[in-house]
């Protein structure tokens, strides 16, 4: 009798959890979004993930879905917030300029990609939020016509392309906003450092194992085909020396907090 009661209680808890937490596909459907639109909403922090399932799959609380529906209004409004366009041609049409001018604006860092994909020629195709492009055009009409400012001319003469760096900064920032855990935050920062830089920044192999275990997965849309994945992986790694220095300094600061936490609680990471 006792075992039967326990089983009923466990089943009741499981049913309650299933009713409160839903998977990504169901959550997307309830919000009226496609799978890619929902992934973008999660990436941008519009939808916050709940506790993960035992298998590691993300789950979402119904209260969170209710909050998003209440804040965003009709599904059309939510879709507009996560709508993206791919490539310079499509982005230029939204802004109202030619593709070459848009490419210059993007390479010089005036607009920041929100994602990427790798095409059949293994070239990077940057994705931009449509709402952000429209906002940029409304705020900076002077950038859409006339000659390029001296700073842009210097950057273009030097062959600069700030798109990867600007995207990495955005990507890391969004990931950091999702967690307050010191070790998870350190893992986010460590994930963009080249291997040799990470070994210098974190000489303790045990700490590097912890950071690797907590490293965030590649962003949604990251290619699975090895040749394309190799191209995309280069986007995830900091390149310019000053960018690497910034992430190393930030990692040092994050690790100080993570180590202090481990010493005081022993909850995560080497002590």
Give an overview of the whole structure.
The chain is mostly helical and 271 residues long. It has three domains: 2-81, Multidrug-efflux Transporter Regulator, Chain: A, Domain 2 (Orthogonal Bundle); 84-161; 165-265, no CATH class. It contains 15 helices and five strands. The protein has helices at residues 2-20, 24-31, 35-43, 62-72, 75-82, 87-95, 99-107, 130-139, 150-157, 163-177, 182-190, 195-201, 205-214, 226-235, 241-265, and strands at residues 21-23, 59-61, 84-86, 115-118, 124-129. It has a three-stranded antiparallel beta sheet with strand order 3-5-4. The chain has a two-stranded antiparallel ribbon with strand order 1-2. Strand 4 (115-118) and strand 5 form a beta hairpin. The model is unreliable at 1-17 (pLDDT under 50). InterPro entries: DUF6397. This is Helix-turn-helix protein.
Key phrases:
mainly alpha; 3-stranded antiparallel β-sheet; two-stranded antiparallel sheet; 15 helices; globular; disordered N terminus; DUF6397; Helix-turn-helix protein
Task: Provide a compact summary of the structure.
The protein has 271 residues and is mainly α.
């Amino acid at each position: 009798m006792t075992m039967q009661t326990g089983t009923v209680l466990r089943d009741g808890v499981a049913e309650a959890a299933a009713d409160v937490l839903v998977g990504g596909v169901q959550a997307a459907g309830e919000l009226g979004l496609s799978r890619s639109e929902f992934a973008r909403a999660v990436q941008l922090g519009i939808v916050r993930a709940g506790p993960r399932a035992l298998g590691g799959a993300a789950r979402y609380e119904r209260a969170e879905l209710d909050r998003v529906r209440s804040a965003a209004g009709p599904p059309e409004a939510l879709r507009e917030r996560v709508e993206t366009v791919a490539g310079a041609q499509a982005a230029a049409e939204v802004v109202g300029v030619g593709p070459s001018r848009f490419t210059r604006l993007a390479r010089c860092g005036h607009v920041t990609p929100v994602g990427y994909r790798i095409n059949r020629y293994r070239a990077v195709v940057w994705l931009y939020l449509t709402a952000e492009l429209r906002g940029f055009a409304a705020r900076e009409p002077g950038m859409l016509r006339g000659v390029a400012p001296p700073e842009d001319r210097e950057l273009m003469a030097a062959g600069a392309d700030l798109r990867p760096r600007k995207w990495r900064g955005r990507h890391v920032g969004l990931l950091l906003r999702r967690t307050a855990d010191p070790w998870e935050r350190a893992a986010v920062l460590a994930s963009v450092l080249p291997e040799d830089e990470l070994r210098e920044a974190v000489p303790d192999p045990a700490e590097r194992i912890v950071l690797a275990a907590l490293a965030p997965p590649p962003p949604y849309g990251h290619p699975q085909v090895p040749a394309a994945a190799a191209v995309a992986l280069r986007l995830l790694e900091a390149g310019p020396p000053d960018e690497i220095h910034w992430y190393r300094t930030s990692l040092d600061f994050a690790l100080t907090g993570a180590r202090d936490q481990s010493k005081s609680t022993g909850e995560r990471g080497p002590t």
